[in-house]
Amino acid sequence: MYLQHFGLTETPFSLTPNTGFFFGLAPHVEALQVLQTALQTGEGFIKVTGEVGTGKTLICRKLMNDLPERFHCAYLPNPYLTPDELRWAVAMELGLKHSSQIDQQQLTGLIQQQLLALSAHGHSIILVLDEAQALPDESLEALRLFTNLETESRKLLQVVLFAQPELDERLAQSKFRQLRQRITFSYCLRPLTVEESMAYIQHRLTVAGSSSERLFSESNAKRIARAARGIPRLINVLAHKALLVGFGEGAKTIEPNHVDAAITDTADAMKHQYDMVKWFVATMVVIGSGLAAFFWFKGGVA
């Protein structure tokens, strides 16, 4: 790999969400602030949505890592579960030991007892679901019913949903209006600006041990930011590939041709680049045709 070549101690642009690389960019900090404020209220559902690669899982892990001790967190990274499977998964996350022979009504009763016991010991219980857009319709309804579990003064369970925008489209349906009304806090992650993307690239290089401030020039960092459309995962992909190409050529800094190679090799970034090129070419053709017609007509009149 290129680590020694570029003076790095670890891979700076891994696709695995690593809170050690967390950078306090505005959209991520704002999302965490919304989550922390919502958890303090102890009410209802909390939802964070964002396009693929905008950093939802990283924020999810950062949230769980930084939770105060009084919070008991149940985490479901893969919520593509039937209602029955969802109840079993929640029971396991709450530390329940039970027989597989019990029915769903009994299981729900055990979950409620465990929530009451945890609450009596001063714990606030939150259920965190990543990739929540994968929840089947029936499981979304089962999830809503979980939040009916409450004492006279507070909910026994708060639910935090991290999801792609498809979840919002589903929740807009009339059949989900009861669940939709229980979402008391929500936040939509936006892509990074060009300036944020450039700072993000340099931050990850610094955390990875780089002592150079010129490994990616400003212009090359901007090109990566634009090709990635401000999506952190795509920035990671493009920067990683550019480093690989640069290493292969024995270069000590990343050059424009290394970035070009990375963009060309990345389908999602390529599509964006080629759409811009096609728009530009089409515009030039239209303008050129218009000018040609104008001068032909003018010449004919003369």
Report on this model:
The chain is α/β, with parallel strands linked by helices. Helices cover 54% and strands 10% of the residues. It has 13 helices and five strands. Strands 2-3-4-1-5 form a five-stranded parallel beta sheet. Helix 10 (218-227) crosses helix 11. The longest helix is centred in the last third of the chain and has 35 residues, at 267-301. It is elongated and about 65 Å long.
Primary descriptors:
alpha/beta, single chain, elongated, 5-stranded parallel beta sheet, 54% helix
**Radius of gyration, rounded?**
25 Å
**Mean of the pLDDT scores?**
87
| Poorly predicted residue ranges | 271-275, 277-283, 292-297
Note the gap between the termini: 69 Å
As a percent range, the share of helical residues equals: 40-55%
User: What's the multimeric state?
Assistant: single chain
Instruction: Please provide the ordered H/E string of secondary-structure elements.
Output: HHEHEHHEHEHHEHHHHH
> Based on CA inertia axes, which overall geometry fits?
elongated
Q: List how many beta strands DSSP finds.
A: 5
Q: Report the major sheet.
A: 5 strands, parallel
Strand composition percent? 5-15%
What is the overall number of helices?
A: 13
Going across the biggest sheet, name each strand in turn: 2-3-4-1-5
Query: What structural category do the secondary elements indicate?
Result: alpha/beta
